[in-house]
Design goal:
Distance between the termini: 46 Å
Number of strands: 47
Largest sheet: 9 strands, mixed
Helix content: 10-25%
Number of helices: 10
Strand order of the largest sheet: 40-41-42-43-39-44-45-46-47
């Protein structure tokens, strides 16, 4: 139950941050007590905004004792919400300093606020001096500061205070929105025996040194006050990033890969921080805060000033209204009780204020080029509408002309008059009746295009086969019509040994795979299996004026069908030829009765048994290749390998970059014909594994594993070591020889030997791995 905020003593000039749509205030005060040994404690209060009352209400509060010594002085240095590398989630962090009685040592403590609203110590360190100047709390969490020309930092991973091994004359601190190497320091290093200096960058996490000019040009390092990395990526090992920097020359500069792209003149001096505000479909804003309580917002798209404010205590960006986009919370100073005077806005229609005048914020008049951009946009939309209108008018004119000429021609025929047409009219006429064969064929073709080819058979595009470990895989790629879908698709194999008049039917197991829609290219590949009894609905019929693309191409649907059989019956018969038969049921339309659907058998061709045609030869050599052979190897591999689907759930922490973790395993390569699949090739055909990771939410995902059973257990063991402690794995379905009575797997303290030892126990019906960290059979 949330309560109104009443305590004036608690919220007098607090440190404030935003987290998950709430604003959290931190403050230090004397711990309650009756003796002289009362100490200091850190208190916090979480507030959430209520639209109806247009006010902030208390959602949670708490306290933690920082010092039990009465004479010790405790104060807050800085607070910020950053990503916790261990929990893989964003958490509020607050840095507290505890000064000794003689001011001879300074104890620093970095605390995080957990989801259960408890302050937990994260990093503690002692310094012989007090931090002066800018102090940064960055992702990790990492605390970074400057002292006597050096850059120092600490984090839970650093295990102590460390110093950047490069001496910078000027430096800029920032972080990349990447999974690794996020926190960086840019600076100018003077070269020995030279008058010039070079721009270097240093990643705090791994100590890697890089060329800093890919982020900021050399000339901007010494004048940059603060930066924000908007986007970053690594392409072939080279860092590519978009950066916004505020300089001491009252400029906001936009860089792309270290090159200046746009500049905006700032209205105030001494910028301190840059935040990005995502307003959804209206675009994004850059919110720049300055010393002396000034705030300025700039549109990202036009790089022009949007609004200005003054007398601002702090500015926070979050989804305070829970509407899915960002808003700015501006807290104004010169008030005893915090949040008595505030403004929530996104400058796009959302505005909630308390204690503020209802007048709009001060906005600078848009420059003339803004009007020009608006006029160009309106002109473009108007031109597009006029083009559509002209096309419709031309279509109506053509129809009216055809009707007039048809009526005139019919009147001439009835009156037995010879029609008189100009050369232009003769060229534009379309024959309605013609007895020559060419016109009949054209009319028949038009009829075939307009009427769904219900009676058309699937077209066989490719027939192939592979052999592996005592089994043969036969595959067929066929094209069907979406307007006449087929169901119950399967393959059968008939042997023709020449020794008897009747062919023998070989027992097979069929699978159906969907091929992408853009499959006119021979290198198209399958992405995932699907039910053979369902096909996508036919697309809506287009106007005849858009028939530049063939209707058959629009309605075409490509499917791959595979059949797996044992080699023993075939080898016992000697040299054989196998006839491949396609079985399916074709549905004329959606309203047909089931009694009208009859099974159809289509001869696809024959294959000669060749045990030298091994499976996945090309796939193992060059999985990056996009070719028919690689696609056929990939489909054959999906057909022979057992298939498991696991649902992975992490209720407390985000799962992290599982796909990146898989790709870093030895021998892991991406299959280009189906990029969502990764190939693990340890040694030999029996060690092959196909993996497909689908991220549902940051806390949930599905993992498709195609491999042998032993490999599946080994891979799950490695995966459990990477996943968070509270993570659980739930099998969704089984295939092949997979045990169907596995219920769930919970992360626990097991070793690979425990997993494999219990796997090799005879008759292994898995039930559960409980939180007691042992197997239950």
């Amino acid at each position: 139950m949330m309560e109104s905020v009443l305590s004036e003593d608690l919220y007098r000039n607090p440190h404030r941050l935003s987290h998950c749509g709430k604003t959290i205030s931190f403050n230090c005060k004397r711990a309650p007590g009756t003796n002289d040994n009362e100490g200091s404690e850190l208190i916090f209060c979480s507030l959430s905004f209520e639209r109806e009352g247009n006010t902030f209400l208390k959602a949670a509060d708490g306290a933690a004792v920082i010092s039990r010594k009465r004479l010790a002085h405790v104060d807050i240095v800085k607070c910020k919400s950053v990503t916790d590398a261990h929990k893989r989630a964003t958490a509020p962090c607050v840095l507290v300093i505890k000064k000794s009685e003689k001011r001879s040592s300074f104890q620093y403590s970095l605390l995080t606020l957990s989801s259960s609203n408890r302050l937990e110590p994260c990093v503690e360190f002692k310094l012989p001096y007090q931090m002066k100047g800018a102090v940064y709390i960055l992702q990790g969490p990492t605390v970074l500061w400057r002292h006597e020309g050096g850059v120092l930092y600490t984090s839970p991973q650093a295990e102590g205070v460390r110093q950047v091994p490069i001496h910078f004359s000027h430096c800029v601190v920032g972080e990349l929105p990447l999974h690794k190497g996020q926190v960086f320091v840019l600076g100018l290093q003077k070269l020995p025996e030279e008058s010039t200096s070079q721009t270097l960058g240093y990643f705090v996490e791994d100590g890697q040194v890089f060329d800093g000019s890919v982020i900021l040009p050399h000339l901007y390092i010494s004048i940059t006050q603060c930066i924000l990395v908007v986007a970053a990526d690594r392409v072939d090992g080279v860092l590519k990033c978009d950066v916004v920097a505020a300089t001491s020359n009252r400029q906001l500069v936009y860089f792309e890969n270290g090159v200046v792209k746009d500049v905006c003149q700032l209205p105030f001096e001494q910028p301190e921080n840059i935040q990005v505000v995502n307003t959804g479909r209206y675009g994004s804003l850059f919110a720049v805060s300055f010393c002396e309580g000034h705030v300025c917002t700039i549109w990202k798209e036009t790089f022009q000033i949007a609004a200005l404010w003054s007398s601002v205590t702090s500015i926070h960006v979050d989804d305070f209204l829970g509407c899915g986009t960002d808003q700015m919370l501006l807290v104004f100073k010169d008030r005893v009780i915090a949040l008595e005077e505030f403004l929530i806005t996104d400058l796009c229609g959302i505005s909630f204020s308390h204690g503020q005048d209802t007048e709009a914020p001060k906005t600078s008049p848009p420059p003339p080029e803004n009007y020009l951009l608006t006029l160009k946009a309106l002109e473009s939309r108007l031109q597009s509408g006029l083009t559509v209108l002209q096309e419709l008018q031309r279509e109506v004119t053509v129809k009216e002309s055809v009707l007039r000429q048809s009526v005139k021609a019919l009147t001439d025929v009835v009156s037995e008059r010879e029609p008189v047409l100009t050369q232009h009219e003769q060229e534009g006429l379309i024959a309605l009746w013609d007895s020559d064969d060419e016109s009949k064929n054209e009319a028949l073709d038009d009829k075939i295009h307009d009427i769904p080819a219900v009676s058309s058979k699937p077209r066989i595009d490719k027939l192939w086969h592979r052999t592996t470990e005592g089994r043969m895989v036969v595959g067929v790629i066929l094209t069907t019509d979406r307007s006449a879908p087929v169901t119950n698709v399967s393959l059968s194999i008939l042997t023709d040994t020449g020794q008897c008049s009747r062919p023998a039917v070989i027992q097979t197991q069929s699978q159906v795979f969907w091929l992408p829609a853009a499959c006119s290219s021979p290198s198209s590949s399958s992405s995932s299996s699907f039910s053979a009894s369902t096909f996508p609905e036919p697309p809506a019929k287009k106007s005849k004026q858009h028939n530049a693309i063939s209707t058959n191409d629009l309605n075409a649907c490509r499917v791959a069908v595979t059949a797996v059989t044992k080699l023993t019956p075939l080898l016992n018969s000697g040299r054989v030829k196998c006839h491949v038969m396609l079985h399916y049921i074709q549905t004329p339309d959606a309203f047909s009765f089931m009694s009208n659907q009859r099974p159809v058998v289509l001869h696809c061709g024959q294959v000669a048994l060749d045990i030298q045609n091994n499976l996945h030869t090309e796939l193992l050599k060059t999985p990056q290749l996009i070719a028919d052979e690689v696609r056929e190897d990939f489909l054959s591999l999906l057909a022979v390998l057992d298939h498991w689907v696991f649902h992975i759930d992490s209720p407390e922490y985000s799962l992290g970059d599982i796909n990146g973790w898989i790709q870093k395993r030895v021998g892991c390569k991406k299959i280009e014909v189906s990029p969502q699949y990764l190939l693990l090739n340890s040694s030999g055909p029996s060690a092959l594994m196909l993996l497909n990771w689908h991220q549902i939410t940051p806390f949930q995902g599905e993992l498709h594993v195609h491999s042998s059973q032993l490999q599946m257990f080994q891979f799950l063991d490695s995966l459990l070591a990477y996943l968070p402690e509270s993570c659980s794995i739930q099998p969704l379905k089984g295939a092949g020889e997979q045990p169907t009575d596995i219920k769930s797997v919970n992360k626990g303290g097991r070793t690979s030997e425990m997993l494999l030892g219990e796997y090799l126990v005879p008759r292994l019906p898995w039930k559960q791995i409980s939180k007691a960290h042992h197997w239950k059979c």
